[in-house]
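Ticket opened by: R.M.
Priority: normal
Category: complex prediction / small molecule

The reporter submitted a protein together with uridine-5'-diphosphate and asked that the result be attached to this ticket for the collaborator who will pick it up next week. Submitted input follows.
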Amino acid sequence: MKKYDYLIVGSGLFGSTFAYKAKQAGKSCLVIDKRKHRGGNIYCEEIEGINVHKYGAHIFHTSNKEVWDFVNSIVEFNRYTNSPIANYNGKLYNLPFNMNTFYQMWGVTTPQQAKEKIEKQKAAAIESMKNSGITEPRNLEEQAISLIGTDIYETLIKGYTEKQWGRKCTELPAFIIKRLPVRFVYDNNYFNDKYQGIPIGGYNRLINGLLDGIEVKTDEDFFKNRQYWESIAKKIIFTGKIDEFYGYQFGKLEYRTVRFEEEIHDCSNYQGNAVVNYTEKEVPYTRIIEHKHFEMFGVEVDNCPKTVISKEYSTEWKEGMEPYYPVNDEKNNLLYNKYQKLAEKENNVIFGGRLAEYKYYDMAPVIERVLKLSL
Ligand code: FAD
Ligand code: UDP
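Result attached by the on-call engineer:
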């Protein structure tokens, strides 16, 4: 007799949501995580009364009402709207690309003027693609220029993207940039989704709510005691790296990772915004996060005398580092497909989440996927 219905490897959002669902269905489960805490990449640590997003800024956004209602049934969310600022050589631009950005870039004030400007810049690029017999953008550079023109590409995209991914824009997949909206209204909301916010009291409350009443063991690496873990449950929910699960038999998948340099400052407001992106190549970090602005508004900012910021340095992943972003280029996708073929044959293992599906997943689609799984 197996002790548990499910062994859940990983207490991130995928594993925790699955555990919640399993418990509701009357199943027994054990969650293990190799980190010293639960929550995976959404884990926060309280410093100077501020919830610091230890693995990078996380803003929850979705248009899926079922997902929004689900997370709000666990913890109430605030009204935070992400509106990052880009700093290029000391000049500031609003993001995502909208009428404010176009005004700052070219001095244009109407949508018509902005469209004309962009169309003119796009036309040259599209023409040259046509001349080479290309109908669809083949890489991020072609996608970005055919979407928004050369000025914005050179100022706000090229440097940032090459820093973030450590690869030339011509070698990156086009889909990465499709995430960013382009708008001809004065609207700095980074996301198009209907619902957006941060859990009031921080993400740990979401994770603790999901894992309430569930047995969790941290500091336990599945691979250090694999046989034992496999013996105690009928099924395994695996949210770690899929290539590691299969002993890297086809080779290693590549990831990007981020190094966070945290600073505490003796002032109540360091940069006036939660997110400031540094889009030129010469600044070594990609962005600075000022965590208090996710949850403190108006006088709350001044009433909290200190502030915590994180500078994000993006680097190639190596053994021993945290694998954050799957590099979904052709080479890695082909490799992943080989592992996925093995995974499809498993009867007692479900692979889910960013690492196990090697997918550039946001939080809401992770929850959506779990809610759709049948137990
Ligand atoms: P994870 O959170 O990575 O959880 C996997 C867990 O498995 C980890 O805790 C890990 O320690 C554990 N584990 C792995 N291997 C083993 C093992 N061998 N044994 C035991 N445990 C193991 N999404 C948004 O919606 N909005 C955002 O603003 C946003 N910003 C992001 C910023 C950054 C820098 C990053 C990296 C991601 C961001 N995301 C954002 C995505 C979000 O983090 C993911 O969608 C979500 O965390 C995925 O959850 P997961 O459970 O799949 O993975
Ligand atoms: N991006 C950019 N300039 C910016 C912000 C983003 O060029 O100022 C590009 C970059 O290629 C990035 C992609 O847009 O990988 C998606 O950005 P997003 O902020 O959604 O990425 P995240 O860090 O949240 O995964």
